[in-house]
Amino acid sequence: MLTSVRITNYRGFGEFELRDLAPVNLLVGKNNSGKTALLEAIHFLASGGNPSVLTAIANRRSEYALGKELDEPSYELIDVSHFFHGHEIGAGTEFAVACENEIPTVTVKAVGVEELKEELLFELREDSMRRGRTLFDSGEPPPLVMKIEGGSSPSSEGPTFLLSESGVLLIDPRRSHYMRRWFDERSSRPPIVFISPDASMTESLATMWDVVLRDKREDEVRSAMQILEPDLQDVVFQAGESSRRYRSSTGILIGFKNGGRRIPLGSMGDGMRRLLGLSLSLLHARSGFLLIDEIDTGFHYSIMAKMWELVVKTAVASNIQVFATTHSADCVRGLGVLCKEMPELRDKVAAHKIEQESKSSVAFSGGDVLNALEHDIEIR
Questions:
Q1: I need a surface site. Which of 58, 147, 307, 370 has the fewest CB within 10 A?
Q2: What gap in Å lies between CA 326 and CA 315, rounded to an integer?
Q3: Domain span holding position 156
Q4: Does 268 map to a domain?
């Protein structure tokens, strides 16, 4: 379990430390205070510096550059300059994520191409030519490369990618196999699940459901879903061609105790889809990490305490470290209600106030969260 996380020059943070971490951590703060950036940094660190995590982050944020910069209008290319503090990139700029635990520090650097070993530059050039690119047509390579050092990379050089002068990643992000070839997927790392507030996650949910079926844990999912719908009887994932074709909630059906036909999950509202994603993610993240951006999305204030009971009890039982964000006072109050009704869980949770102007978070223990609830103290 992570006990602290230190970030240097990542997005809005020059220096920042997230301290006094618990098994379940709720990050609170104003808009644009950096809560989501902290989740991203933890994801990247816990992954061992997997470059595919960076492409996933950029895709979620739509941080693309127009292909015309490279005279390739059919491509959407990632602008990695946004990862660096101040959105500035150049030779010598870098960001790093570290912790006090056994996970190695991960550092991402932009360096001049002249610093590359000749054989690595040749490999990058050959790969570019295989993909039909013309990056070397001028006879000179692009001026910058992005290097990932530390983490779990099996390569002594670390993953290295060509960049344009303004920080555009010179590969097509849709070619995910190119990222994976730099990373040893066989190495042993804890599972990591990231839930964003606007993702339908249908394909991911189907994959997680396969694990639920294998391990015979359907009853746990049904019990979690009954937080919103007490009459829910079962959850079914369609396996037909239509469910593979459409990327929505329509491939998931919900049945009820009173009989009748099953209805699509999408007909039930965003809360049911979100709760299914949360319950499956908790099962999938066993002995790993669960990162949830805006955990309260889709949930009515009246079920917040029940939602937290599901998260905290499952996290403790399954050895999961949870990091979640919220803007909602109801979400914080729900955590306080849980601490009041189940005092045995107080030492398993913490809230952390995030302010970019500060060098570190302000941590509130479960007892502090309960005290804030009972005395109507605002900790956001």
A1: 147
A2: 18
A3: 49-180
A4: no
CB–CB of 106/44 below 8 Å?
yes
- Number of separate domains in the chain: 1
**How crowded is the C-beta side of 294, counted as CA atoms within 13 Å?**
13
Q: What is the pTM of this model?
A: 0.87
As a whole number of angstroms, the distance between CA 347 and CA 380 comes to 20
134 located within any domain: yes
Is residue 22, in this structure, part of any structural domain at all?
no
**pLDDT tens-digit profile, the chain (380 residues):** 999 999 999 999 999 999 999 999 999 998 889 999 999 999 999 999 988 899 889 988 988 776 544 455 444 578 889 999 999 888 899 999 999 888 899 999 998 877 766 656 656 665 555 544 444 445 555 678 888 998 876 555 677 777 776 777 755 444 444 454 444 444 567 899 999 887 555 557 888 888 899 999 999 999 999 998 999 999 988 876 444 444 444 588 999 998 889 998 888 888 888 899 999 999 999 999 999 999 999 899 999 999 999 999 999 999 999 999 999 999 999 999 999 999 999 999 999 999 988 999 999 999 999 999 998 888 87
